[in-house]
Design brief:
alpha+beta, 2 domains, 18 strands, elongated
């Protein structure tokens, strides 16, 4: 058996057959700030409806800049892939997320007073307007799961628990950990066939809900855009002709530069 010597004590990996899922989940929550920098981590025991039935996740990770979010399913070593893990992941990947899910997350946060800065309106825009990524967290490597879960664009993060004979523990991380998006990237935007001169924001939560106009650099040109919002999304409508009128790209990236200015560039497929 593998062991690690740390400050005079030997630590061994904990067999997941000997621990409860809730205990494992609680330890992940306890160390969320170190495990998932750049995310708010909160309980998410809210039923999710999908065309494949209902499912209930375990945790949720919210990007602190409201650019994306991740539904987390915590599993143990002995949980079967077929009929359990894959079934849940399929439901979450095809889930229908509405305001009540954002309100659940927000209210859970108020109960534990973990992130006082969490913004309900931005959270609603994010949850309602974008589909989450899915992350499965397990205490041991599960190489046979990768191929099956890849079709749902789900990642597998391995967080092992190691303990000494007094119950002290540390966590060993492996696999595809949730990673915060690049600091400058905010959202993709797309040409809208309904408003040919306008652009549709993939994630409307990234723009301040208190403003109705925004200045955006396109190359060296400063352009002014009106923000039109609805329950189904948000659009950028230019005040005048812009350089994108002469560009062939169908999608763009909205970024924040080092000076704090918005920039729009043709999408290169990196995000």
């Amino acid at each position: 058996m593998s062991k690690i010597l740390h400050k005079g004590s030997w630590y061994s990996p904990v067999d997941s057959w000997t621990i409860y899922e809730k205990v494992y989940e609680n330890r992940i929550e306890t160390h969320a700030s170190e495990l998932f920098p750049g995310f708010y981590c909160l309980p998410f025991k809210k039923i999710v409806d999908s065309i494949y039935g209902k499912g209930t996740p375990d945790l949720v990770l919210i990007d602190t800049q409201y650019r994306n979010w991740i539904v987390v399913e915590v599993e143990l070593e002995h949980h079967p892939l077929r009929g359990d893990v894959e079934d849940q992941v399929r439901k979450f990947a095809n889930g229908m997320y509405v305001d009540s899910h954002a309100e659940y997350i927000y209210n859970k946060n108020r109960e534990i007073n973990k992130y006082p800065e969490l913004d309900l309106e931005k959270l609603k825009l994010l949850v309602r307007g974008t589909q989450p990524k899915i992350s499965v967290i397990v205490p041991v490597e599960k190489p046979t799961w990768w191929k099956s879960l890849l079709q749902y664009n789900a990642s597998i993060a391995v967080i092992e628990i190691w303990e000494d004979d007094t119950g002290r523990y540390f966590l060993r991380v492996n696999g595809d950990q949730p990673v915060k998006a690049k600091t400058e990237f905010l959202s993709k935007v797309f040409r809208d066939p309904i408003t040919p001169s306008g652009l549709r924001l993939e994630n409307p939560a990234v723009l301040n809900t208190d403003v109705n106009r925004v200045s955006i650099y396109i190359g060296k040109y400063l352009t002014i855009w009106r923000i039109l919002r609805s329950k189904s999304g948000a659009w950028l409508i230019p005040d005048d002709r812009t350089p994108i009128d002469d560009m062939s790209a169908l999608s763009f990236r909205l970024i924040l530069n080092d000076l704090g200015d918005y920039e729009l560039e043709a999408d290169d497929g990196k995000n």
